[in-house]
Design a protein that fits this description.
Blueprint (H helix, E strand, L loop, with lengths): L2 H4 L2 H13 L3 H12 L11 H33 L16 H13 L4 H10 L3 E3 L8 E3 L2 H13 L1 H4 L3 H11 L12 H4 L8 H23 L4 E2 H18 L29 H22 L14 H24 L18 H8 L5 H32 L1 H14 L8 H6 L1 H13 L5 E4 L20 E4 H4 L3 H4 L14 H7 L19 H18 E6 L20 H4 L4 E3 L3 E3 L4 E6 L5
Antiparallel strand pairs: 1-2, 3-9, 4-5, 6-9, 7-8
Helix pairs in contact: 3-4, 9-13, 11-12, 11-23, 12-16, 13-14, 14-15, 14-16, 16-19, 16-23
The protein binds protoporphyrin IX containing FE.
């Protein structure tokens, strides 16, 4: 641990920046000294009431001047290249402070991406610069830019990995050891675990899907709506903990939440949070904190001046993971294994991902292992759970789509057989339902890219200054009518099957990026499709209809009434999509489901 990392984020930020902030300070301080050293007789005398405020102002002043200077340099560089800079949002307060405040407020209370959408429309550009605190905050929904960045990432990755500052904001949760020298996840080691049709994965999915459906039936038969999001989180947590380290946290066995409007009086001993729930909540809280940090931009440490907000929840998370890691490391020691033996791409029968990583990372610190495991868990667990939740929400809103999906399930797999990889591969409509869900609600909302874009032929290309990292919103890109057609905001899985597929997606595959592209493409993509498909097949073998249950939602978790007058999806949405690292439905998703009569 170095000196900086031992300080709370705010302190460490100030210490790291104090010198660069204040190159003017020595000049100003000279005046102060001059004041104090009257005895020198030097003629330049500045009164203390002038020199003191000047001294205090020197730090922010130098900060602003440095940034304005950089802007001048960038403008000149752009002109030299025959390019222009991204159009800047014009706020009312210095440093676009009002824009930052509005962005944070609307991220908290509004519909995802609505502020960016409005500014994009106002500036008539799909790439814009919020220029918050005199610093570039460039944002894009342009597939051409993202595509360019893919090529860039493939060839010149070192310069374009997620910025150091971004890494710093996530480090206290995701750790720093997950990236290898190229800034890439250790893919070769984990790749064999994500192969398309590992039978052991299907065994895991089946056990947990059955447990989930049994618990759902119990609760629904007792007359209570269920929180599908909570159920999906439990299903993916139990599956992930078993898949990753053969240590199923058994969250499906813990008590389920009751609907807000009809909770029975519970025995207080049942109200104690189980280990699974504490772990799950702490993980969500940590993700929430790092999402808040990313919204604040570079200055987020100033809000954590005396305390790292992720410290407490991460203590709970680590308290669960570390004993499992210790056990795995001890096992390796007991077996006298030295690590780095054999081929890291070969997996022994029955070996868990943790056992495999332990075998091949012997020289590294256990923290690296913990970070890897936690990263895979966060990357794989919430994403899949929330995509399933969004699918159930959309199917509840579109019963005809559900009827068509069920008939495909019954045609291919029948009412009770366990689905296999070949079934999943052939079920086109099921895949289209998942893709359409991922198009409207790509759960990994916004990722970073750096690009040299040059899209509209009538305009000069936009110059992106070196090493600028640009968040791009897949969420907004997936809803652009110029890319997907006039019905882009509608849920219609057929668009992945009918003529619209060839018209829009086939010629321009970069318009659909729920799993990202290039070197950062999600390694768990096939695993996720398998897990989600498996669960939906099992679910709709057992149930035939879904109805949203808004009355069971906790207060203030449904879309605010004023949304209904908004245009687009905001006006029709009946759940409130929010995001921390990934998207989720505020207050869960309360539904009633009817058991299928056609089960054998
Ligand atoms: C619907 C489900 C999923 C979606 C939408 C999704 C999406 C994504 C996206 C967009 C990224 C790139 C993030 C970035 O560029 O920073 C990513 C990375 C990643 N995903 Fe997924 N993912 C899903 C499921 C899974 C599953 C099930 C696993 C593993 C079991 C997984 C493992 C990973 C890992 C390890 C990375 C990091 C790769 C790297 O940094 O190079 N994902 N995922």
């Amino acid at each position: 641990m170095n000196f900086f990392s031992s300080l709370p984020p705010g302190m460490s930020y100030l210490v790291a920046n104090i010198f660069s902030f204040s190159f003017l300070a020595p000049v100003v301080v000279t005046f102060v000294i001059d004041d104090l050293l009257v005895a020198t007789g030097f003629s330049l005398r500045v009164p203390i009431w002038v020199s003191t405020p000047l001294c205090l102002a020197s730090a922010p002043l130098s900060f602003i001047l440095r940034r304005l200077w950089k802007k001048c340099m960038d403008t000149r560089a752009a002109a030299k290249l025959g390019a222009r800079l991204a159009p800047v949002i014009k706020g009312k307060l210095p440093g676009n402070l009002d824009i930052m405040i509005e962005f944070v407020a609307r991220s908290r209370d509004g519909y995802p991406g609505e502020a960016q959408m409005q500014w994009t429309e106002e500036l008539g550009s799909n790439t814009i610069n919020a220029w918050v605190l005199w610093e570039d905050c460039i944002f894009t929904t342009e597939p051409e830019h993202i595509k360019a960045s893919g090529a860039m990432l493939a060839t010149d990755f070192q310069n374009f990995i997620k910025g150091d500052r971004f890494k710093y904001s996530i480090e206290s949760v995701l750790g720093s050891g997950v990236f290898n020298a190229d800034g890439l996840f250790h893919r070769s080691m984990t790749r064999p675990f994500f192969s398309r049709d590992r039978i052991s994965h299907f065994d895991i999915f089946d056990r947990h899907a059955e447990a989930a459906i049994t618990r759902m039936k119990e609760r629904l038969n007792a007359g209570y709506a269920i929180d599908f999001q909570d159920l999906a989180y439990r299903f993916t947590l139990d599956s992930a903990t078993e898949f990753l380290f053969d240590n199923d946290v058994c969250s499906l066995a813990s008590p389920f939440p009751y609907p807000h409007n009809s909770a029975p009086t519970l025995d207080p001993s049942n109200l104690r949070l189980s280990q699974a729930e504490r772990f799950s909540r702490a993980l969500a809280e940590s993700q929430h904190i790092i999402a808040e940090r990313s919204r604040m931009g570079d200055v987020w440490p100033l809000l954590e001046m005396f305390k790292d907000k992720t410290k407490e929840p991460m203590a709970v998370v680590n308290g669960y993971i570390e004993p499992i890691l210790r056990e795995a490391l001890e096992k390796r020691r007991d077996r006298g294994m030295d690590g780095k033996e054999g081929n890291e791409e070969e997996v022994e029968e029955g070996e868990t991902l943790l056992e495999h990583l332990v075998k091949f990372t012997s020289s590294t610190h256990p923290v690296v292992l913990r970070d890897q495991i936690l990263n895979i868990m966060i990357a794989g667990r919430d994403t899949t759970a929330v995509t399933l939740t969004c699918a159930i929400y959309l199917l509840a809103m579109h019963p005809l789509v559900l009827t068509k999906l069920r008939s495909e399930i019954l045609d291919y797999v029948g009412p009770s057989r366990r689905p296999m990889f070949d079934d999943i591969r052939e079920m086109r409509y099921l895949r289209a339902v998942l893709n359409e869900t991922l198009r409207l609600f790509p759960v990994v909302e916004s990722v970073n890219a750096t690009t040299f874009p040059s899209s509209d032929p009538t305009l000069k290309p936009i110059h992106i200054p070196a090493k600028t990292s640009i968040p791009y919103s897949v969420f907004l890109m997936h809803r652009r009518t110029d890319l997907w057609g006039p019905d882009a905001e509608e849920f219609d899985p057929e668009r992945f099957i009918d003529t619209r597929l060839k018209k829009y997606l086939t010629p321009n595959p970069f318009i659909f990026l729920p799993f990202n592209a290039g070197p950062r493409i999600c390694p768990g993509q096939q695993f996720a499709y398998n897990e989600m498909s498996f669960f939906l097949i099992r679910l709709f073998q057992a149930f035939s209809s879904i109805a949203l249950s808004p009355l069971s939602h906790p207060p203030d978790t449904l879309p605010p009434p004023d949304w209904s007058s908004a245009k687009g999806r905001k006006g029709i949405e009946r759940f409130w999509p929010k995001s921390h690292l990934t998207m989720y439905s505020l207050g869960g998703l309360r539904v009633n489901m009817e058991e299928a009569k056609d089960v054998l």
